[in-house]
Design a protein that fits this description.
By secondary structure, the chain is of the alpha+beta class. Helix content is 49%, strand content 24%. The strands form 2 sheets. Strands 3-4-5 form a 3-stranded antiparallel beta sheet, covered by helices on one side. α2 crosses α3 (83-97). The radius of gyration is 31 Å and the shape is rod-shaped.
Length: 148
């Protein structure tokens, strides 16, 4: 019995030391998970910033489409848009809403539709050192004037 326990002790002593290798592997996976979470947070923030800018462009185009002048042509009411009036309405809405987005272009391509382009800058919520100036975003929306 004593010989058997002596052999086991010697086998343990001569076995390679595996202590610490699991710790390194665990730390490596923890860093990988942390990087994945940070990338997901930044990607989600960018997506939401673009969606907010899309909504602002939609609202500005809708406001621009309300800047029509009403006239009667051959007994029928006609709503006509002008590019300066579309821009005034869109900029007025953007001033009321606030934020860092600005109207880049606003006008009417056909006299009945208002097309507005707004732009803004997205800054990542974490790890801003990699994108110090942010990312330029833009959104364009069109709204049509209609009489009922």
């Amino acid at each position: 019995m004593r010989l058997l326990s002596e052999r086991r002790r010697r086998a343990r002593e001569s076995a390679p030391d595996d202590e610490g290798s699991v710790l390194i592997l665990t730390l490596g996976y923890a860093v990988l998970v942390l990087v994945a979470v940070l990338v997901c947070v930044n990607a989600t923030s960018l997506y939401l910033a673009q969606k907010r800018l899309d909504a602002l462009a939609d609202a500005a185009a809708l406001a621009g489409a309300d800047g029509y002048t009403l006239s009667v042509v051959e007994g029928e009411p006609v709503a006509e848009l002008s590019s300066p009036e579309v821009r005034i309405q869109a900029e007025s809405l953007m001033a009321d809403i606030g934020g860092s987005a600005v109207v880049v272009a606003a006008g009417t391509p056909d006299g009945v539709s208002a097309r507005v382009t707004v732009a803004g800058t997205w800054h990542p919520p974490v790890l801003t050192m990699f994108v110090p100036d942010g990312v330029a975003l833009a959104a364009t929306a069109t709204s049509r004037t209609a009489l009922r």
